Amino acid sequence: MAKYFYSFEETGNGYEEGGDTLEETLEIANNNNEENKILVFIGEPQFFTPLIYAEAIINDLVDQVSFKLEEAEENYLECVSNEEEKDLTERLNKALGDWAKKNNRKLQLTFIVNIKSYDLCALQFIAKEDHEKLHKLNLNSLKQ
Questions:
Q1: CA torsion sign, 124 to 126 to 127 to 132?
Q2: I need a surface site. Which of 28, 29, 33, 136 has the fewest CB within 10 A?
Q3: What distance in Å separates the CA atoms of residue 115 and residue 15, rounded to the nearest whole number?
Q4: pLDDT at 140
């Protein structure tokens, strides 16, 4: 997976995989700029995978028992050790991962952070080797 992603729209889920360097990503974006957009937004991907936590499941089970029975079981799942909770958390997340794989579901989410905008018109005049000038063209720094 590339280190940088780009989009011609600042917001939304339309970010495309770029390259491993800023310069490579700008070149890819410029080559795919079919609508001749002036600005390109470039950021870095971050990943998030939601997890199941045993504590929440245990609390839910205790709440279900309390709701269903007039007189709650006072000792129901009481005194679960940290080891037992950790073991249950690992087993639940493994089961969730197996389920997702079997059903072709994607659990991991990708979102883009550290987004900066670049003027593609101005970049046409800068040599690829001039990395310092490239960063100075970051339009976010001009908005201060």
A1: negative
A2: 136
A3: 11
A4: 45
Q: What is the DSSP string of the chain?
A: --S-EEESSSSSS--EE--SSHHHHHHHHHHT-TT--SEEEEEEEEEE-----HHHHHHHHHHHHHHHSSS--TTTTTT--HHHHHHHHHHHHHHHHHHHHHTT----EEEEEEEEEEEHHHHTTS-TT-HHHHHHT-HHHHT-
Quick one: tokens of 128?
């690829």
Show the low-confidence residues of the chain (pLDDT under 70). Answer: 12, 70-73, 123-144
In this prediction, residue 133 carries a pLDDT of 53
How far apart CA 140 and CA 99 sit, in angstroms, is 43
Tokens of 5: 């992603």
Which two tokens mark 56? 């929440």
